[in-house]
Amino acid sequence: MTVTTTEGEQRARLMHAAYRNGASLTQTAALFGLSKSAVHQAFTRYDLPRRPPRVNRGPLPTSVRPPDDAPPWPVPVGRVPARPEQDWHTRAACTDLPTDLFYPNHNIQTVKDIDRRVVDACNRCPVLPDCLAAGLNDVMAFGEATPQRTARGCAADSTAGVQHELAATTGRTGPRPDRRRSVRRAVRPPRRIRRRPEA
Which residues, other chains included, contact 14 with Cβ-Cβ below 8 Å and sequence gap of 6+? Predict the structure, then answer.
């Protein structure tokens, strides 16, 4: 008795062979021009195992030791050198602070919510005018044009005295009016929908 296979089953077996030879489910689907779910359905329909059999490679090593000629462990990560026009970044007081301190929860309501380390770093920063000028000149491409907080700067949150000092050094009076409006919209708390009490 001969067993005949359909064209669909042959194709499913070809897909399964590619999958067992190391191709991922996504790669197998792309190879045959199908979606991942269609490949999985073909494997299920013709009772082909979805996961390739595991290969026993022996016991796992108890400790990982780098070879003798390897660099020191862990490999120190170097800083990207600053461009000449951004040399002030290397002298900023906040270079050692984590960047996520400058981007707190988006629902920030008051200056009290800003991490104290950020404020202290800005108060003692030798390059504050350069940082504020960069923050006022850059534009973020997220939604509307808003003052971009540069990698280490918070120009939008500067006080009137700092903005006056900045105007004296850069010749600008502050953020443009369209930017002020968009900053106000960004800081405004979301509207609450009040429901009428049921009678």
Answer: 32
Report yes or no on 156 lying in a domain. Answer: yes
Number of domains in the chain: 2
Q: What is the mean pLDDT of residues 51-63?
A: 62
- Unique residue bearing structure tokens 């009772």: 47
Confidence of residue 21 (pLDDT cuts 50, 70, 90): confident
Supply angle C-alpha 135, 137, 142, rounded to 5. 75
Task: Give pTM, 2 decimals.
Answer: 0.29
Q: What is the pLDDT of residue 48?
A: 76
Do 104 and 175 belong together in one domain? Answer: yes
Pick from 157, 105, 106, 112: nearest CA to 136 = 157
Domain hosting 151: range is 86-187
